[in-house]
């Protein structure tokens, strides 16, 4: 019996200085505990990828998606729960006070804005996520360069 992967939508949020937003997952999370991550999550029943992206950004940061700059790509991966996921990642801008995200209680513990030169901070995840978050963010920086921002 073939099982479809769980669908996910995620956003690499970029600020006016060309930095991207990362947030640390809580150590109590089932998937990828205590690792840096982008904003996103699973689609709810009947939800489109765009709807999920916008909902997740608001739930996890309190910000609202203002523009989708482009699609970074799709990534397939298996979580520690053994389930396959297919995640579509977008490069986005948001509205709100970027110095004060409202992190989702119990799910995220801290955040930071990183530049292209600070990608090494994501290497602490590589044993848990196989470098996936770094790949996604590198794709976001490449797309930023491609569209001339």
UniProtKB/TrEMBL annotation:
<dbReference type="InterPro" id="IPR020476">
    <property type="entry name" value="Nudix_hydrolase"/>
</dbReference>
<protein>
    <submittedName>
        <fullName>Mutator protein MutT</fullName>
    </submittedName>
</protein>
<dbReference type="InterPro" id="IPR020084">
    <property type="entry name" value="NUDIX_hydrolase_CS"/>
</dbReference>
<dbReference type="GO" id="GO:0016787">
    <property type="term" value="F:hydrolase activity"/>
</dbReference>
<dbReference type="Pfam" id="PF00293">
    <property type="entry name" value="NUDIX"/>
</dbReference>
<comment type="similarity">
    <text>Belongs to the Nudix hydrolase family.</text>
</comment>
<feature type="domain" description="Nudix hydrolase">
    <location>
        <begin position="5"/>
        <end position="135"/>
    </location>
</feature>
<keyword id="KW-0378">Hydrolase</keyword>
<dbReference type="InterPro" id="IPR015797">
    <property type="entry name" value="NUDIX_hydrolase-like_dom_sf"/>
</dbReference>
<dbReference type="InterPro" id="IPR000086">
    <property type="entry name" value="NUDIX_hydrolase_dom"/>
</dbReference>
């Amino acid at each position: 019996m073939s099982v479809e992967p769980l669908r996910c939508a995620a956003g690499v949020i970029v600020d006016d200085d060309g930095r991207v937003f990362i947030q640390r997952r809580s150590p109590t999370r089932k998937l990828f505990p205590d690792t840096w991550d982008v904003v996103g999550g699973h689609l709810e029943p009947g939800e489109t990828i765009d709807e999920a992206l916008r909902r997740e950004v608001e739930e996890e940061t309190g910000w609202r998606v203002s523009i989708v700059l482009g699609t970074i790509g799709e990534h397939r991966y298996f979580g520690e729960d053994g389930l396959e996921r297919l995640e579509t990642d977008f490069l986005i801008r948001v509205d709100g006070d970027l110095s004060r995200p409202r992190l989702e209680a119990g799910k995220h513990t801290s955040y930071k804005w990183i530049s292209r030169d600070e990608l090494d901070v994501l290497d602490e995840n590589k044993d848990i996520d196989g470098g996936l978050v770094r790949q996604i963010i590198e794709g976001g920086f490449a797309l930023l360069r491609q569209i001339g921002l």
